[in-house]
Amino acid sequence: MPRYFVFIAATSDSVSWRPLTVLGLAQFLMVLDTSVMNVSISQLVDDFDTDVTAIQSTITLYTLVMAAFMITGGKLGDLWGRRRAFTIGMIVYGVGTTLTAVAPKLWVLVLGWSVIEGLGAVLVLPSLAALVGANYTGRSRATAYGVIGGVAGAGIAVGPLLGGWVTTYLTWRLVFAGEAVLVVVILLLTPWVRDVAGAARRTRLDGVGAALSVAGMALVVLGVLQSSTWGWLAPRNTPVEIFGFAPTLFVVAAGAALLACFVEWERHRETVGRVPLVRPELMAAPPLRAGLSMLFVQNLVLLGIFFAIPLYVQVVLGLNAFETGLRLLPASVGMLVAALGGSLLGRISGPRRIVRVAVVIVVAAVLWLATTVQPNLDEVSFALSMALLGIGMGLLASQLGYVVQGSVGDDARSEVGALQYTAQNLGSSLGTALVGAVLIAALTGTFTDRIAADPRISDAVEQQATVRINAGITFVSTTDLRTALERTTVPPAEVDAIVDGYAEAQLRSLRAALLAAAVFAAAGLLATRRLPTGAPKPTTVA
């Protein structure tokens, strides 16, 4: 049994370790995938003969599927019963991870990982949140949610290292084969978990609400994701132009409009006496809104950084997946330790203060991290900034799940669990998409400026390069760029100048992406005003 379970079981307010082991293993499994994929980007590009943008889209689609369908998954948990939904979700997830392990083509990887695994997760995660609440009460419940946050940190800690080692020395496919085995173990141990009393409800699923929520979130994330290709205003490589502009903002606006329609539809459905997908009055609780907002920000920043940093370590510095995992380890360990310790810290300080301190730590860590993006890696400074980032993220993880779940009664835990994981995964989707968009936009602009300002590059080559850059640029190594240029008629001296300009553009674009992540994190301070200063009090929902 892991040490932190032994420690918690030994406290005076004893927590039964058996259901926590099952639910913790499931939480570990849910967060392992993305961290493995992030350190395997370069290998995936090679294995599937694709580019970084395609892998970015695959990662984004995985979290988008979870964000878009999570509310529906939570409602299915209400209809079927929480433990049954948990079990069905684990089976679906197992099918997806098995298909991912044997994927021969990129589209099969997308189907198995991004779609099937994502759909399994939307049944598992809301039920998991409700089952934690059903199996623990009082201070034990707060500790249990802290442990679940710590296990998420463990998944993030193990993922880069395990995924990096297996990817480098064996194959990334073994990670997903191992996940299939872990799914079987979880299913065998599920009887240890007590179901939520009276969980199943005889009612119809709100199909219109489900369709509106799925379509709305999908369009918002799609617009942000495609902004690096289409452009925000001036059209670049777009399938269509709208009034002479790129379709990006129109797609995002359409998604926002559908989400507004979703909210109005839910209110209408409740007014006429039908069961909505999400009860609008749930959002009347300020601590719940604040907790969900901070979960969104936390995952947006974390996944954005964990997308950008592997590009720096692997593509710019040329390190392999295992070496990348080692560089990410300080953040992962810091997150695990802080998440576990944060639940104890909560006994002497309120969530609002802890979260505010955590946000300040995260902003400082990201700014520090941006200064380490240099042609040669400063190992000590990089490791310390990553460790500080992990501490800040771990403190957030230790408080936010407890605040969100503690803001409602037992009857709404699955519903709120769906909102909780929707916020997390929507943040993850937008984090990868937004940080990726900032990175590509900065790369495009900086590279174009460098070529224009370099006297070694002729006007003819500059014009050809500008046309190609504006048509769409991807993040590749300078070695690959040099190899491609040497196959053309560009003179060797101009090849050197272009490669030098691209190398500088890479570093500047990575710094810009990290600075954007710091701004997003700082904006989270606005949401902390509504966090409770003490233990959250449940809001009664009719």
Structure description:
Mean pLDDT is 82; it is low at 1-14. Helix 7 (138-169) runs antiparallel to helix 14 and helix 15 (413-453) runs antiparallel to helix 18 (492-523). The protein starts with a helix and ends in a 19-residue tail after the last helix. The protein is built from 18 helices and no strands. The chain is 76% helix and 0% strand. With 542 residues, it is mainly α.
What brief labels describe this structure?
mainly alpha; disordered N terminus
What is the fold's blueprint, element by element?
Elements: H1 3-9, H2 17-39, H3 41-47, H4 52-80, H5 82-101, H6 106-135, H7 138-169, H8 173-189, H9 207-230, H10 248-271, H11 286-316, H12 321-345, H13 351-371, H14 379-406, H15 413-453, H16 459-471, H17 478-486, H18 492-523
State the gist of this model.
By secondary structure, the chain is an all-alpha fold.
CA-based gyration radius: 23 Å
Run of helices and strands? HHHHHHHHHHHHHHHHHH
- Report the β-strand fraction as a percent range: under 5%
Largest sheet: none
- Please, what is the oligomeric state? single chain
Task: Give the strand tally.
Answer: 0
- Contiguous low-pLDDT stretches (5 residues minimum) are 1-14
Number of helices: 18
Q: What is the CA–CA distance across the termini? A: 41 Å
